[in-house]
């Protein structure tokens, strides 16, 4: 099991799931700050927003999260102890431009990320920075309609350019939009979209997608001009779709399901709307408003690498009698009888990881970066403060093994930043009890706890993986 020299082992977190300090030092409200726990959460993620302000009596886990904003030095020291070569983080748009359309950036927000990147570099940890990770300033949603409005393209370009200029000497790896295809599945999370009853949701979603794709191209252009030695990528919520049977209808349906997501990366990596996307838009009577320069922008400013998350594969059937759907995953899927499931109903498919990596590399012939992969589980803290998470070690071991097989297949992979190296707030459910980390954080679903950090068994295991460059699993 040989990984390339300089392989970027590490972990990944997001500002809105880790930082907390949600209005501190001039930060504005973001979309995630309006996602409470409980039954309202999913309705809002789908685009039914009851208020542009937090509602009294609701619990909003992002407001405090795990207080990474104040405790980042302690946490980075633990990551360094594991031997991290990289840490994927995101910048909170509303820390830099509190309203999103501000004329001048917030210096306190810029300074925080200066300090964060300096701390990482002090420990020889490469920052891998996502510009937009499910994070839109609420002002842009309330006053412009978020990404349905072309003006967001300019606001995002200003924001991205500000980051490139400020951090050009500190950040070598950037990504534009986290899991950009999530826009189709959770439109408020992916693009800050809020719908009225009579809205044509497909029209709005695909117009918003076009605006994000143009904004991504402009960010690539700016990055290459300001920081020529940096690399800037896109990011896909990946996981191939299996046909439930060899019925050609099932095979075609699986291909179409995959294309829903590939559409975004096809444009960002290949530089044009693919034929199948044009047919989809035509068949569904959707018209994308484009400006004269859009097609050239998309063509000329493609990404340097493909970032992707992998948690599970999916399966699909055209037979209405086959309707045993998996639960708790935003991507609808028929249950695969050959696979086990996590405690949240997500399929566990290490071989699918290898297949997905090959699929992406065959399609794009650009370096891949595995920027999310991990197991959410109900970890139990023992009386003596330990967490024995052999199940997580087993999950990670099997997936890293298949990643090494993909590399042997000829797939070029830059690095692997597993999701949630420290326990953070779950993006989907808002829970703390859905834990991914190698580091346990003392906090529960109601926000109670000391926030103390403690090492799980997987901490020492991952340390050995990194020390051996993947040879010791």
UniProtKB/TrEMBL annotation:
E.C. code: 3.2.1.86
GO MF, one annotated term: 6-phospho-beta-glucosidase activity
Enzyme kind, highest EC tier: hydrolase
Keyword Hydrolase annotated: yes
Superkingdom of origin: Bacteria
Gene Ontology CC annotations of this record: cytosol
Catalytic residues identified in the record: 372 (nucleophile)
GO terms of biological process kind: carbohydrate catabolic process
Cell inner membrane in keyword set: no
Pfam families: Glyco_hydro_1
The entry's keywords: Glycosidase, Hydrolase
Family to which this protein belongs: Belongs to the glycosyl hydrolase 1 family.
Name of the molecule in the record: 6-phospho-beta-glucosidase
Organism: Metabacillus litoralis
Lineage of the organism: Bacteria, Bacillati, Bacillota, Bacilli, Bacillales
């Amino acid at each position: 099991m040989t990984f390339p020299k300089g392989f970027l082992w590490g972990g990944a977190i997001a500002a809105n799931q880790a930082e907390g300090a949600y209005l501190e030092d001039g930060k504005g409200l973001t979309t995630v700050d309006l996602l409470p726990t409980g039954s309202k959460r999913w309705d809002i993620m789908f685009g039914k927003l009851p208020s542009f302000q937090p509602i009294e009596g609701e619990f909003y886990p992002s407001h405090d999260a795990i207080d990474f904003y104040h405790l980042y030095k302690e946490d980075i020291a633990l990551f360094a102890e594991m031997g991290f070569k990289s840490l994927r983080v995101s910048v909170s748009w509303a820390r830099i431009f509190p309203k999103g359309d501000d004329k001048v950036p917030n210096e306190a927000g810029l300074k925080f990320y200066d300090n964060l990147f300096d701390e990482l570099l002090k420990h020889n940890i490469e920052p891998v920075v996502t510009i937009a990770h499910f994070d839109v300033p609420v002002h842009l949603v309330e006053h412009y309609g978020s990404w349905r409005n072309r003006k967001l393209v300019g606001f995002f370009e200003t924001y991205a350019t500000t980051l490139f200029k400020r951090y050009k000497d500190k950040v070598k790896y950037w990504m534009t939009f986290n899991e950009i295809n999530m826009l189709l599945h959770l439109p408020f999370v992916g693009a800050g979209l809020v719908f009225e009853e009579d809205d044509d949701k497909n029209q709005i979603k695909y117009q918003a997608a076009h605006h994000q794709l143009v904004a991504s191209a402009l960010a690539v252009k700016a990055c290459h001009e300001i920081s020529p030695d940096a690399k800037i990528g896109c990011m896909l919520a990946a996981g191939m779709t299996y046909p439930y049977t060899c019925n050609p209808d099932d095979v075609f349906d699986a291909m179409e399901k995959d294309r829903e997501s590939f559409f975004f990366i096809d444009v960002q990596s290949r530089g044009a709307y693919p034929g199948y996307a044009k047919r989809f838009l035509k068949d569904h009577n959707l018209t994308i408003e484009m400006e004269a320069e859009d097609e050239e922008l998309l063509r000329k400013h493609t990404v340097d690498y493909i970032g992707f998350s992998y948690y599970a594969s999916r399966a699909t059937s055209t037979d209405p009698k086959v309707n045993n759907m998996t639960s708790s995953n935003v991507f609808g899927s028929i249950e695969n009888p050959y696979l086990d499931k996590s405690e949240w109903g997500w399929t566990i498919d290490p071989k699918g990881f290898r297949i997905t990596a090959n699929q992406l590399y065959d399609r794009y012939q650009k370096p891949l970066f595995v920027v999310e992969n991990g197991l959410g589980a109900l970890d139990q803290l023992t009386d003596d403060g330990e967490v024995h998470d052999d199940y997580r070690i087993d999950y990670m071991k099997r997936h890293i093994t298949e990643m090494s097989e993909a590399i042997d297949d000829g797939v070029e992979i830059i690095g692997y930043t597993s999701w949630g190296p420290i326990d953070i707030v779950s993006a989907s459910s808002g829970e703390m009890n859905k834990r991914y980390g190698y580091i346990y954080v003392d906090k529960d679903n109601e926000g109670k706890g000391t926030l103390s950090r403690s090492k799980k068994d997987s901490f020492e295991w991952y340390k050995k993986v990194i020390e051996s460059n993947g040879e010791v699993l």
